[in-house]
Amino acid sequence: MRYLRKEKKSNEPKWGYAVPFFVALGILTVVAFLIPLRPEVSYSEKRELAKFPEFSLGALADGSYFDDITLWFSDTFPGRETWITLANYDDSFYGYSEISIQGELPVTETVPPIPENPEPAIPAATKETEGETQPAETEPGETEWGGVDAGDAAEIIRNMTTFQIGDSAFIFQNFCQETSDSYAEILNQLAAEVEDKGATVISAPAPTAVGVLIEDDYQEKLGSVSQVKILEYIGSKLDDRVVAVDTASALIPHNSEYLFFRTDHHWTALGAYYSYSAVCDAIGVEAVDINTMEPWEQGEFKGSLYGRVSQPYKLRPDTVTAYIPNGDIDFEIYYSLANSKPWPLLSDTTNRTIQEKYLVFGTDYPMTHAENKSLPDAPNVIVVKDSFGNCFVPFLTQSFHNVYALDYRKFRESSVAEMVEKYDIDYVIVMPYITAIQDSQGPGMLRKVCLGRWQ
User: Fold this and answer.
1) Alpha carbon distances (Å) from 343 to 1, 275, 346
2) pTM greater than 0.85 (yes/no)
């Protein structure tokens, strides 16, 4: 009789497999406690990260002190932005579709029909052909649309109000009739108040990429609203005393050019230039030829939308270019009307981080003042703006003697109506970016700055 010998199973753990895991865990633990490696700012999310909490007996007693330490530890983990990018990359492998939408399509109001069609302040840049919007210069055989190819095969990834088409990120555009009416009412009141002071009010909201680079019919499929239609509606509510500039239509014929960043919500300096030219054309002021200004490259840029899409690694890197104005120009920044100091009109950011390149145009001070001493006989202007106006102001110095820029989100010491008389202003350009007008808080802030009161 044969007996089969059974091998005795070993119950001893095979530590060889566990050693690499514990080594890696140990290394990460050491790295995690190296405070100098912990980031303080998330550039992709545009926010400061949690700070190590200050000790207090009250916080210790209620347990919030240790909760805040836990938040600091997780929020400032070394290399957090790299880990986030890798996580997004990993998520992209869960299924494949040429069109991928995350979340529900946003709900927006429909732009109501305009009963009358007033003459535009600038020549129409588009024409209607069989229900499609096409550049006015289009000739047979030429490309009809120079913007982003958003056909049915385009890859779309939506994340909250941001969506991605190929190598570019966009912000969804909604419409709110109530806030649009409020914006028009504010400008009408402002125009009435400064009319006897000899100043002209100009409405020139800054468009965003979705309204210029993507055709209207495809925007409807995305649930986004045509910015041309929004500006047409606002223009229909403005008095004749207000000059309405359709900035979206002014940029559409140039949408094959680099008008907007692909990783950021702002326009480029070139996009701001075409809007500036449209404003000058509307009021009969000569605009500078951009070819007479020296371009100043700041290097590669990674902007505010980079961390808001699911596949940021597909976004094509941006570059920031400023254009150096001509003339003898003095520039000041104002923390308040009584506290100012000289500052460069354009700041060198070539050695700053890849996320900070847009700061070549300055940051959002309550007020700035530029004086072009080479244009003593040129008119004076106030521009009411947000961060979109930062790269718009340098072009204004080429057509105006004094340029006062007020950030409607921060300036609270006076009203535009009062400053028009104080600074002998000829023109007031109101140019919040168009999405801010559709927000419930935007018109309220504009009312305070323009009229000096809440209503």
Assistant:
1) 101, 25, 9
2) no
